Structure formats: C-alpha cells, structure tokens
Amino acid sequence: MASTARTQAAADKRRLILDAAVKVFARQGFHACRVSDVADEAGVAYGLVYHYFSSKDEILDTVFLERWELLLKLIAEVDSGDAPARDKLRSIASFIIDSYDNDPDVMKVIIVEVTRAANSFGRTHLPKIREAYQLIADVVAKAQERGELRADVTPDFAALAFYGAIEQVLTGWIFALLPQSPEYMEAAKEQIVDTICDGLDVIGLRAT
Amino acid sequence: MASTARTQAAADKRRLILDAAVKVFARQGFHACRVSDVADEAGVAYGLVYHYFSSKDEILDTVFLERWELLLKLIAEVDSGDAPARDKLRSIASFIIDSYDNDPDVMKVIIVEVTRAANSFGRTHLPKIREAYQLIADVVAKAQERGELRADVTPDFAALAFYGAIEQVLTGWIFALLPQSPEYMEAAKEQIVDTICDGLDVIGLRAT
Amino acid sequence: MASTARTQAAADKRRLILDAAVKVFARQGFHACRVSDVADEAGVAYGLVYHYFSSKDEILDTVFLERWELLLKLIAEVDSGDAPARDKLRSIASFIIDSYDNDPDVMKVIIVEVTRAANSFGRTHLPKIREAYQLIADVVAKAQERGELRADVTPDFAALAFYGAIEQVLTGWIFALLPQSPEYMEAAKEQIVDTICDGLDVIGLRAT
Amino acid sequence: MASTARTQAAADKRRLILDAAVKVFARQGFHACRVSDVADEAGVAYGLVYHYFSSKDEILDTVFLERWELLLKLIAEVDSGDAPARDKLRSIASFIIDSYDNDPDVMKVIIVEVTRAANSFGRTHLPKIREAYQLIADVVAKAQERGELRADVTPDFAALAFYGAIEQVLTGWIFALLPQSPEYMEAAKEQIVDTICDGLDVIGLRAT
DNA sequence: TATGAATGAGTTTTCATTCAT
DNA sequence: AATGAATGAAAACTCATTCAT
Fold first, then answer.
1. What's the Å distance between residue A52 CA and nucleotide F1 C1'?
2. Which residues on A lie below 8 Å from B164 (Cβ)?
3. In sequence order, which residues have a C-beta less than 8 Å from that of residue C69 and are 6 or more positions away?
4. B140 reaches A (C-beta below 8 A)
5. Which residues contact D82 (CB under 8 A, 6 or more apart)?
C-alpha cells in the first residue's frame, strides 16, 4: 500500500513534469527554453527533473513516444478493419485533429520539435515516424487492391501526401494561418480526406 | 574600375561564404554547426564572416530570402498569366522541384531550418512565407472563379495543401523516404498536381 | 538485552556500510564514486548512509582513522620493547604489509585517498600521519643512541625514508608494478628493512 | 615576421596560462580549483583558457608531460654514461631536487596531482611514469652487472625504492615535515643516495 | 580585407545532503 | 531504522561576437 502510494505519487510527479515540459516546449520551443523553465512551470526544483529524466532530450523523447505510440496503435487498428478507405483515412485524420483539439501543445511540440526537425529529433525518431507512414501506406495499398483508390499513385506517395496534408493543416492552426473554430476543425477532417481522395478539380465533382 | 573589381571580388567572397554556409547548414543543421565550420568550409578565417554578415542568423536569413524572393517572383508571374490552373500549379511545383534538383542543399536548408522551424526562423519569416501561400491562394481563387477548380475548398486551404504536398515530397527526398531518380522527380511534379487536383479516388479517374 | 541487540544490529549495519565504502573507494576512487554507489554496494538506501555518517567525507575519515589507530598502537608497542632496531622495523613493515595482504582495499584507500592525497584528506589528517612518522623516528633515535644505527642520518629523515619505502612498495603492488606472490610479499618485508638498513651498496655486503 | 610575432605572442599567452595553472593547482589542488581561478591568476578571460587547451585536464597533462619528458631525457643521458652507479643516482636525485628548488610548485603539482594520484592522473600517465622507473632500473641493473651494487635486490625494487625515497623527501618539504634550508636540500641529495646505497645500518659504516 | 586572439554570457548536468513519510 | 523524493549549489564547457593588428 505504502509502496503503491509512493509509486503513484512518483508517477504523478513525473507526469507533472512532463505536462509542464509540453507547455514550455510549446511556448518557447525546445532549444529556447532551459530545464529550469520546465522545473519552474512544474513548480519543482530543477534537480528533480533529473531525478525522473536523464536529460532534457529524454523529456522530449518521452513526450513524443508516448503520443506517437497511441497514433501507431490507432492506425494499426483502423488498418485491420473492413471499412472503406475513405472512412479509414477519415478516422486517422480525426484522431490526429482531435488530439490537437484536446491538447494543442502536445501536437505542436511533436510536429515542430520532432517530425519536422529533420536535423535533430526528426532524425533520431525517423524509424518511428516511418512506421506511421508505412501503416498509412498499407491502408492505401489494400484500398488500391480492392479498386477503391487509384492505383497510379504509389502507396508510399499517397501516405506522404495524406499525412503531410494533416500536418500542414495543424501547422496552419499552430501559426494561426487557418481559422480554429470547432466547425472549421471538424470540416477540416472531411476536407483533408476529400482533397486527397477527390482532389480540387471540378472534374471530380462532375463525376459524382 | 579598380573599385568595380574590388566590389566584384567582395561579392564573390560573400557568395563563397554563403555557398559554404548552405553546405554546412544542410550537412550539420544550423544549430549544430559553428560559424567557424562555415568559415572552414569556405576556406577563410571566421572573423571574415563577420565582415560580410552581421551575425550567424543573418547568413541563414540571406540564404532563405535570396531564394524565397525568386519563388515569390515566379509564383507572381505564373499567377498573372492566363494558363489553366493545373498548368499554373504545375509550373510552381516544377520550379520548386527543379530548385531542389539543381541544388538540394539550399532547399533542404530553407525547408528544414526556416519554413518548418516554427519556433525560430519560421516565426521570423512568417510574413514572407505567408506571401507565398497568399499568391498560391490567388491562383486557386481565380481558378475557382473561372470554374476550373471546386469552390467548396477555401483557396487558403487549397494553397496550404498544395504547398504542403510539395514540401512533404521534398522532405521525403531529404530523408530518403522516396526515390530520387530523375524520372521519379519528374513524375512527382505531375503526381502532386494530380493528387491535389484529382485526388486519389477512382471516381476522379472514372470521370475522365 | 533488546537495547543491546538493537545496538548490535546498528553497529553491524554501520560496519556493512563501511566495508562497502572501502570496496567502492578502492575500485572507483573517492571522488569518482557517489554516495549512492556505496549504498548500492551495501544493499541499502542511500539515505541510510546519512543515518550512520554525517557526510561522505566522514566515511573516509572513519576508514582511515580506524586502521591508522591500529598502526599507531602497533608502532608504539614495538617502540616500547627492547628488540634490536632491525627487528622493530621489521615488525612495523610486517604489520603494514600483512594488513595489505589481508585486506588490500583498505590499505589502497588509505594510501591513495589519504596519506598521498596532499591537497585533500592528507592535509586534514596530517597530524595523525605525523604521529606515525614521529613514532618511527623514536625507534630510530633510540637505536642511534644505542649505536645500532648510523647517527649521521636524522631520525626524521630515516623515518620518512622507511615509511616511504613501505608505501612505495604497496603502491607498486596496487599498480601491479611489482609481483604480488605470497613469497614476494614476504621477501619484501626483509628487503625493505635491508635496503633501509644496509643499502644497495656492495660495501655493505662485504662488511657482513 | 608578423606571423612569427603572432605565433610567439600566442606561445607566450599559452605559457602564461600554464604558469598560472601551476600556481593555482599547487595552492588549491587540481580538484578544488576552478578553471576561472586559473584564468584569474593569468589575468585573462575564462574562454581564453579553452582557446589554448581543450579541457582542464589537458592543462595538467601538459604541465606533467612537459616536465616529465625532461626527467626522462636526463635519466636516459645519465644511464648512457660511464659514471659509477652512485654518481649516476646522485645526478638523478640532484636533477629532481634542483627542479623542486627552482620551481617547487611544478614538482608539487606533478607529485601530488599525478604520480601519487593513483585513481585519476596517475592511472592515465602510468606508462610514462613506468618509463622513469624502467630507466632507473636500467642504471641499477648495469651497476649490478659490474658488481657495483648488490645483486640480491631486483633492479625494479631498487628503482622503486630510490625514486620513492626522492618523492618522499619532496613530500616532506611540501608538507613542511622536513627543513628546507639550502644546506639541507643539498645534503638530502647525498643522504638519499647514501640511504639507498649504504643503508642506515652501522655495519655499512664499519665496513668503510 | 583578412586574421584569429580574446571575451564572457549562458546552460546542462551532477551529486551531496536534507527531509517527509 | 529505512526509504528515496526533493533540493539547489557548483562548475565545466561552448561559441557567437568583438577587436587589435
């Protein structure tokens, strides 16, 4: 009991630091902030940060991996289902956009400091990032086999374009280049899927 | 004459440093390299770098702005023409992809260290980056007015998706996630325009 | 009884930590190890170390003083006896070398971290170290008075040379500069006494 | 010319820092002083120390090696000569004691922070230290072959005892355990050689 | 123009020690 | 007695930038 309580308290403190780090990383950027900023935000001494994490890098690694694993799991689940490709892609886009909606800071940190930081954490976590692309490519490949999607675009390319579109929209929100009303965010899910699946061309519309 | 020659020599030296900086920034990343690395690559003393540039930041600013102005000019020219939207977008995609083909390092630096570095140079140059989005949005808006493109996607969103797709493909090459053969690079231009205009959906194909 | 038992248990724990400290100090060096390394070696939480010792320094102080008192006592006893100077010196050398033989780690720690650490613990314990020199000098002085040893070397110098030779041999073993077989270690006792008393010179031999 | 002058100035500054480091290391001990203490003593900015040395450790390495190479050279020269063993050993003892006389700080640093620091620099420089022992052992071995010195003590042991005696005397001075008058220092050279060669025993005297 | 010596602010990390439980 | 979470002082090292030559 005591041990459990202690363990729980420790886990809570770790989470407290992690949450503070996300806030600070999102606000100031990973490089522009000091470990003491994170500690201050969490209201603890900065030595405690090193009690729970071995380095500043490890904090960001943890933030990224924790959330990215959820994403990978979600995509894998979606992929294994029988839904039409559009629905599958919409589920993935929804998950990511809802993640941003619920906790914009985490997604901002992940995108800005990891998946788009090609010379630092992006390189470190490239294998994990690649996994996501691969899983999305699987969704596309299966749909192509079933004749649901055009087969003249490689699944790899399609996955890149699809995930890229999502990340781009999130970036648009992060930079306030796009409106962030709940309606717009909801519509964006559909628009991304539409853009990727149907394109902008009126010919696509005409065909319907 | 002597003055012109001297000026020319100075310009050459400046260019020498700029080119060296691009190489080093691309190889090591802006933050991971030192001013002396740039000087070494250029074969000059690092004090000289400060004769031509006021700071390390200014070197990257220069690299970015020089090339970005060309891009803005190209898009503006394309926009002012009468070509069909697809051709206009293809011209823009071609210009960027050819830029990468001719000098991958510059584009890598611009994308990785500026346009995707939301917490550092991306923030500084946001207005300039926005200009490009705006110009592309103009292309889309005009095409929508003329009925060439679906009107149910906002021009802003379309511009974001289009430029995002291009950047994503370049990132794919930078990370070796996509093949970089001349044929693939050529095909990519078309595929980006297709994906954005027609989408992946077979309905689009059927309609043709 | 209960109190005694408790006291005994406490003394045992203290000894456990002390022994662990000796091992760790010998292996990693005093400065290169952390208090937690000592605790780990002892199999206790590092907070407990502070229950028995007021500081990391005090652990080393204790290790040193415990053993050094034994040495001082031994030398005083030897000094108070009537044996010939050679026998007295041999007893002292034997005691130290046997100490090393029985527990090399303690002697290594004492020599490396205290008696030869002129800028840290050597300075702190200089008075205690001096006592040993003084007692040895007494042995020499008495022997000189009785005509057993040459009087043209000051007792202080002789004591320094004698103890220095012993420490040097121990250092030779610690660094594996000298062989450590039981025979060699036994012979070393005699050789130290011989070297100091008779010297290397063949004239000394001739005289025998 | 300009280049030579600049090089010379740089060498002077480096020497300035080196001399300051010796002073500070001798006064406070290597571990107890900060790099800024060295810079302050030299009257230069903190960063300049790192312009000339890659680390605090490298400063001490340089101090040690510079002087130790002189010692090795001297012993090698002495060894190659034809003088009697006593004269050779006296030359070596003289060189070291004169070194201390001329610049006590350097020798203090070398002995306290390197040759007797078994767990840090002593370990790093063990090969170099061993070289000195080996060269002295050569002197002894040759003398034993020529019948000048007793052959029942191994050259290795004799070298250890001889160098150990010198270091012990220097330590005696460093700690003010022995008088440091010029006469005493001069006499010490002879006494060390005497003690090692003739020993303390009166039998040795009688034999003369 | 060109050099590289000189400056010093800034940050991560370590770890002895304290203390609540 | 025992635990280990919490604290924060301390110090090495980096590197952009300045400046004398």
1. 26
2. 164-165, 167-169, 171
3. none
4. yes
5. none
| Phi and psi, residue A32, nearest 5° | -80, -10
Residues A3 and A85 in one domain: no
Question: What is the Cα Rg of chain B in Å?
Answer: 19
Q: Is residue B206 part of a domain?
A: no
B164 assigned to some structural domain: yes
Encoded amino acid at C175, one letter: F
Per the structure, the residue whose CA is closest to nucleotide F6 at C1' is: A48
Look up residue C78 and give its two tokens.
């030897």
Whole-number Å distance between alpha carbons of B61 and B49: 14
8 Å CB contact of D207 and C206: yes
Tens-binned pLDDT, residue by residue, of chain A (208 aa):
445 555 777 778 999 999 999 999 999 999 999 999 999 999 999 999 999 999 999 999 999 999 999 999 999 999 999 999 999 999 999 999 999 999 999 999 999 999 999 899 999 999 999 999 999 999 999 999 999 888 888 898 889 889 988 999 999 999 888 899 999 999 999 988 888 887 666 655 444 4
- Determine whether the interchain pair D198/C196 forms a contact, defined as Cβ–Cβ distance below 8 Å: no
DSSP H helices in A2-151? 2-28, 35-42, 46-52, 56-80, 85-102, 104-109, 121-124, 126-145
- Count of domains forming chain D: 2
CA distance A114 to A66: 13
SS3 C82: coil
Q: Dihedral sign, CA of C18, C24, C26, C32?
A: negative
pTM value? Answer: 0.91
Q: Are residues B89 and B184 in the same domain?
A: yes
Residue D149's SS3 state is strand
Q: Tell me which residues of chain A, numbers 158 to 197, contact chain B at a CB-CB cutoff of 8 Å.
A: 158, 160-161, 163-165, 167-169, 171-172, 174-175, 177-178, 188, 191-192, 194-197
Q: Report the C-alpha gap between D12 and A39 in whole angstroms.
A: 45
Q: CATH number of the domain that B31 lies in?
A: 1.10.10.60
Question: Does B86 contact A at CB distance below 8 Å?
Answer: yes
Contact assignment for B126 to A175 by CB distance below 8 Å: yes
List, for residues D83-104, the tens digit of each pLDDT value. 999 999 999 999 999 999 999 9
Q: Is residue A208 part of a domain?
A: no
Is strand F less than 7 A from the beta carbon of B25?
no
